């Protein structure tokens, strides 16, 4: 609150004070006290009015300044009244009480929606675990079948299992629970697990994976989450026209505090149009390739980015339309450095 805004708001009070001063001055002059006495009386009234305005401005300025600062700094503004002192003037107390009531209502509403979201997420996770049983049973029954139709059936079951797993990791990515464990993990093993899980899809699409990852390459990550992240990159490459999929590793920043291991997943597929590259990690963004493929959910790379962020990894994508795509996963050696960007 500025002084000019405060005075503008008090225009009527100032006008009344000036009118009273003039009236008192005139009255004193009419009573024959002289011009000096008239001016003095008017000045006393104006001085008292100015003092009252100054005191009022000081009391209000402190409260509104604190309120403005707290509201500007907070993401959840309904906590504002818990961080400022109640004011000592009437309209301020009324505003404070109104804010307090609105904040409590907002907090209660947020808590209720959070509880509903957690209950829904728990149900989804339970449903996913339940649905895995008939999928596993169908896969077991299909394993004895032979022929082109059997191969297609097995492929569709793999796709169903992949989408179910994607839903499970999405539910987990939105949970505050720390249901993952960062441990030293073999990078080559995680890559092989991802390739093995998508082997049938790679074969159907005619994709040849080339794994150039040393057996002694060790990184800090959750093994299951890492295999899932790499699996999403494998599935994307196969879906979008790749014929060769290469995994390679390099070390960066040796001898510095930013030392890290980088896994590069490169393919020779369609590539991503330049206009879509900045948005590939957005939720449900399918882009031109997704519309061209016709079966994209836009969740694969979003989950890659979300899970990498939770594990403290950096992920980046570089692509040129018609020339393929490169995705880089960076694993910091110093686990205390979690200020990595996507």
Description:
This protein is of the alpha+beta class and 342 residues long. The protein folds into three domains: 104 residues, no CATH class; 56 residues; 159 residues, Histidine kinase-like ATPase, C-terminal domain (Heat Shock Protein 90, 2-Layer Sandwich), CATH 3.30.565. 58% of the residues lie in helices and 13% in strands. It contains ten helices and seven strands. Strands 2-4-5-7-6 form a five-stranded mixed β-sheet, with helices on one face. The chain has a two-stranded antiparallel ribbon with strand order 1-3. Strand 6 and strand 7 form a beta hairpin. Helix 2 runs antiparallel to helix 3. The radius of gyration is 34 Å and the shape is elongated. The two termini are 40 Å apart. The C terminus is likely disordered.
Briefly summarize what is shown.
The chain is α+β, with helices and mostly antiparallel strands. Helices cover 58% and strands 13% of the residues. It catalyses: ATP + protein L-histidine = ADP + protein N-phospho-L-histidine.
């Amino acid at each position: 609150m500025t002084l000019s805004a405060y005075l503008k708001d008090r225009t009527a009070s100032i006008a009344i004070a000036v009118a009273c001063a003039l009236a008192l001055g005139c009255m004193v002059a009419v009573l024959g006290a002289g011009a000096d006495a008239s001016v003095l009386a008017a000045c006393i009234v104006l001085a008292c009015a100015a003092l009252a305005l100054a005191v009022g401005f000081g009391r209000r300025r402190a409260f509104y300044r604190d309120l403005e600062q707290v509201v500007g700094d907070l993401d959840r503004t309904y906590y504002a009244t818990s961080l400022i002192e109640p004011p000592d003037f009437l309209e301020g107390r009324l505003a404070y009480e109104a804010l307090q009531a609105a904040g409590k209502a907002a907090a209660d509403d947020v808590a209720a929606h959070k509880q509903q979201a957690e209950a829904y997420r728990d149900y989804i996770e339970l449903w996913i675990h339940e649905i895995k049983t008939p999928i596993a049973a169908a896969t077991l029954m299909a394993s004895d079948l032979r022929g082109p139709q059997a191969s297609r059936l097995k492929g569709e079951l793999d796709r169903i299992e992949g989408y179910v797993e994607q839903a499970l990791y999405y539910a987990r990515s939105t949970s505050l629970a720390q249901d993952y464990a960062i441990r030293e993990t073999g990078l080559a093993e995680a890559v092989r697990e991802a390739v093995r899980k998508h082997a049938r899809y790679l074969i159907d699409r005619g994709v040849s994976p080339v794994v150039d990852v040393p057996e002694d390459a060790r990184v800090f990550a959750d093994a299951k989450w890492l295999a899932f992240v790499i699996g999403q990159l494998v599935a994307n490459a196969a879906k979008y026209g790749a014929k060769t999929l290469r995994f390679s590793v390099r070390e960066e920043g040796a001898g510095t505090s930013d030392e890290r291991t980088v896994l590069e997943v490169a393919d020779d597929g369609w590539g991503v149009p330049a206009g879509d590259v900045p948005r590939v990690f957005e939720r449900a963004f399918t882009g031109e390739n997704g519309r061209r493929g016709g079966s994209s959910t836009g969740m694969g790379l979003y989950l890659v980015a979300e899970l990498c962020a939770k594990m403290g990894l950096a992920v980046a994508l570089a692509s040129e339309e018609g020339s393929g795509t490169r995705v880089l996963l960076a694993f910091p050696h110093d686990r205390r450095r979690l200020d990595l960007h996507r």
